[in-house]
Specification:
alpha/beta; DHBP synthase; 327 residues; 14 strands; Rossmann fold; 10-stranded mixed beta sheet
């Protein structure tokens, strides 16, 4: 398959692909998404084929307005409506009761559907032009680090999908927060761009993320990003605590040029590394993590050393991704 590339000013072409049952990747504020018409079962099936994604891993459906939401969700709980009013558009995905018309391919056979209204202008305009809710997991091969640039999408999916929108690098760099609004109290299924502290400002009863497979419904995993190994580069990821980097490197490695580094602290001798990414804060760390993984693979690095951060705010989501990448 020949992949067509679109600029941010050529969204009509990408929207036509989605209308015609094809796949088009596009930027959001979190990561790049791989979009298909959420109401077209054949198109949704192509997502799983292009990514090599297991069929029991549900998808997130992206909407542009209330009319799209009404096509896929029903009986929306009051707490979900309050969270939408506060955090939509934005990096919050809500698990809601689904309408019967939504394909079981989208929901992995569950009676719930994960929905988000993104804040990225390209994403919103593409959904509007396509005229349909868009199912869109991250635009990468399954298990690989999520794509935060269109070049990363191309590395994984060129020739496997019909179109790629060439937007700017994503601003947040980690996936959205997923919250199950169908249970009482609601609970965080995946940490992401909206923090627990922010969520509790709307509903103090919201339960925190408790890690991976513990967040399951009785029927199966009801959020993407939980059941399988995720976010892993080809290089081995090592997560270390600040202050022990030098001793850990001396113990484990001889060829430091094969080691890439990302964290908040500067190594004592950064020139020894193949690449060093020192971030000013946790937000920048999150935004650059997956790109660092991919650049390490391009350079042929054997290891990526990642500094651990405090698990507050965005640090919860960042540490979740680091743990999964280092499995």
């Amino acid at each position: 398959m020949k992949t067509t590339y679109f600029s941010a000013l050529e969204l009509e072409g990408a929207a036509e692909l989605i209308k015609n049952g094809e796949l088009a990747a596009f930027p959001t504020e979190t990561v790049y998404g791989l979009g298909a018409d959420a109401l077209n079962e054949n198109a949704v099936q192509k997502i799983f084929e292009a990514k090599g994604r297991p069929a029991d891993n549900p998808l997130i459906v992206h909407v542009a307005d209330d009319s799209h939401l009404a096509l896929i969700a029903s009986n929306i709980p009051v707490v979900a409506q309050e969270l939408m009013a506060r955090f939509w558009p934005g990096a919050l995905t809500l698990v809601l009761p689904k309408r019967p018309e939504v394909s079981s391919l989208v929901t992995a056979g569950l009676n719930t559907v994960a929905v988000r209204l993104p804040s990225h202008p390209i994403a919103i305009e593409l959904i509007r032009l396509a005229g349909t809710p868009i199912a869109a997991p991250s635009a990468n091969r399954s298990g690989r680090p999520s794509a935060t640039t269109w070049q990363a999408v191309a590395d994984d999916l060129d020739g496997r999908i019909a179109g790629i929108v060439k937007g700017e690098p994503t601003s947040f760099g980690l996936e959205s927060t997923v919250l199950d609004a169908t249970c009482d109290p609601p609970r965080v299924l995946r940490p992401g761009g909206v923090t627990l502290e922010q969520l509790k400002e709307v509903c103090d009863a919201i339960q925190p993320y408790s890690g991976g497979l513990s967040n399951q419904s009785l029927q199966g995993v009801n959020s993407p990003g939980l059941k399988y190994k995720h976010y892993q580069p080809q290089a081995k990821v090592v997560v270390f605590t600040a202050g022990v980097l030098e001793s850990e490197l001396q113990r484990a490695l001889d060829r430091l040029d094969q080691v890439h580094y990302i964290g908040l602290s500067s190594p004592s001798n950064p020139m020894r590394f193949g690449s060093t990414q020192v971030c000013s804060d946790v937000g920048e760390y999150a935004a650059k993590l997956f790109d660092t993984f991919r650049k390490a693979d391009i350079a042929g690095a054997e290891w990526v050393y990642c500094e651990a951060v405090s698990e507050i705010g965005i640090g919860v989501a960042l540490m979740d991704r680091l743990r999964r990448a280092s499995q």
